[in-house]
Here is the input.
Amino acid sequence: MADPRDYQVRAGTATQAGVEYDAGLRSYMLGIYNYMALGIAGTAIITMAAATSPALMETIMSLRWVFFIALIGVSWFGPNVVLSAKSPALAHGMFWGYAALWGLAIAPMVYIYLNIAPQLVVQAFAITSVMFGAMSIVGYTTKKSLSRMGQFAMMGVIGIIVAAVVNIFLQSTMFSLLISCGYVLLISAITAWETQEIKNMYSAGDTAGVAKRKSIFGAFLLYGSFISMFIHILNILGIMNQD
Here is the structure.
């Protein structure tokens, strides 16, 4: 007959392991959000610095297509580079380079709004923070797999990008509004999916180097979603507040 104390020992061991796993997961996710927040702060500093220099702003405007193409390339290849990097330094370099590139890319748009309606920039950031936080919580807490929804949303984003390029030539304000509304909905779904995927990547057995790369990888994905959401929410507010 089995000794009841054996069951108690195993149950206690399993409980302790579960507690340690949950603590490790929380620490892992907190690290990701910390990296992301620092990336957003760095982007804001670069954007504001560019906005105070007319000469630099003129140069950035002349290179806007270069930044656009570079962002697409880094957004596409950057996550794989971060995750497969041989050293944390390379992963850090890719992430901070990405944040700096975004800071320069969005500087002209933010500069315009800071001069005509600075309150919209604050409102857009606040709305983005709330929406992003809500969708990230959904992704973290839901038990249902969001993979199919996320993959569908990613395909939708590709279509939105194509439509945005077309609208560069059409210059349609209404089309721009529709594009931004659609993008915000899609990127909200992607945020939930990314959060779930990042959470599922956690492993208590990871080495320090692997854990660091995973943290930067997660921050890279969520940072890109946050900044993209902010840009389109700012565009929506700008169009809706036109005289």
